[in-house]
């Protein structure tokens, strides 16, 4: 039976962890290094670190903070934001990350996915997809630049394309659900999960324990990611894992 993963996410802006609603209305949540250390001890399976304004502001992810976070944890670390070249991928991995998450640059230049996979292995390359439903088109569209720019891509087609280029994992965020705490977008997650053969991490909308079991079963996600409900102690990784285990979902014992 597949082991499902629970992953806290650190959205970082100007060196601080922040959280908002639908990618806006950001508020300070704390220090990323302190959070990383806490979540490692709490039993998180992985940690995601996203420099959320790096692409829209045209700068690089903060290598020093990545190094500081990596030094504090024993679990896998995925880092995204402002990764535009093969050299950027190398820099972040050498700073201590296990995987890099790429969105904007991959849409602009899909060859970057192949280059990264060829050099560092597919498992090191995560394609982040920020998705928003377009009522006029009747489908979910891919957004870049921190959720500010709509692209030509339909989400499922881009997910397939990214995997064909060598992506080893999809980090799928629903902009519509982000920060609302009303649950993950189950339909979107299931559509993407059924369309690719690599793990899909569901993100956006976690508000209570039941949301996790729903996205991991009905949504067919391999992992579920959350931020504010963990940061503000509304629940914990341990509580979520215990709840899932009681209901027959296979989770790690760490």
Structural summary, described in words:
By secondary structure, this protein is an alpha/beta fold. The protein has one domain: Aldolase class I (TIM Barrel, Alpha-Beta Barrel). It is 37% helix and 28% strand. The protein has helices spanning 32-42, 54-57, 63-72, 86-94, 104-108, 111-120, 155-165, 186-195, 209-217, 228-231, 237-246; strands at 5-13, 16-21, 24-30, 47-51, 77-80, 99-102, 125-134, 139-144, 149-154, 169-174, 200-203, 223-226. The chain has an eight-stranded parallel β-barrel with strand order 1-4-5-6-7-10-11-12, surrounded by seven helices. The chain starts with a strand and ends in an 8-residue tail after the last helix. One of its GO terms (molecular function) is imidazoleglycerol-phosphate synthase activity. Keywords: Amino-acid biosynthesis, Cytoplasm, Histidine biosynthesis, Lyase. It comes from Bacillus aquiflavi. It is found in: Cytoplasm.
Please provide a brief summary of the model.
The chain has 254 residues and is of the alpha/beta class. It contains 11 helices and 12 strands. Strands 1-4-5-6-7-10-11-12 form an 8-stranded parallel β-barrel, surrounded by 7 helices.
């Amino acid at each position: 039976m597949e082991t499902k993963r629970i992953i806290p996410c650190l959205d970082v802006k100007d060196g601080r962890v922040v959280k908002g609603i639908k990618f806006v209305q950001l508020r300070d949540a704390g220090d990323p290094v302190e959070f990383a250390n806490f979540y490692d001890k709490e039993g998180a399976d992985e940690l995601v670190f996203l420099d959320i304004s790096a692409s829209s502001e045209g700068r690089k992810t903060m290598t020093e903070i990545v190094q500081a976070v990596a030094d504090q944890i024993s679990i896998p670390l995925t880092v995204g934001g402002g990764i535009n070249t093969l050299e950027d991928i190398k820099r972040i991995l050498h700073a201590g990350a296990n995987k890099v998450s790429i969105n904007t640059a991959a849409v602009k230049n899909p060859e970057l996915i192949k280059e990264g996979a060829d050099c560092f292995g597919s498992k090191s390359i995560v394609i982040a997809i920020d998705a928003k439903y377009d009522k006029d088109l009747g489908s979910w569209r891919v957004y870049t630049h921190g959720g500010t720019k709509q692209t030509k891509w339909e989400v499922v087609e881009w997910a397939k394309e990214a995997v064909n280029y060598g992506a080893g994992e999809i980090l799928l965020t629903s902009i519509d659900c982000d920060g609302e705490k009303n649950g993950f977008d189950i339909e979107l997650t299931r559509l993407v999960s059924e369309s690719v053969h690599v793990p899909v991490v569901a993100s956006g909308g976690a508000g209570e324990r039941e949301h996790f079991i729903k996205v991991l079963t009905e949504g067919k996600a391999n992992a579920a990611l959350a931020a504010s409900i963990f940061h503000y102690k509304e629940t914990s990784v341990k509580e979520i894992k215990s709840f899932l285990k009681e209901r027959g979902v296979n989770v790690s014992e760490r």
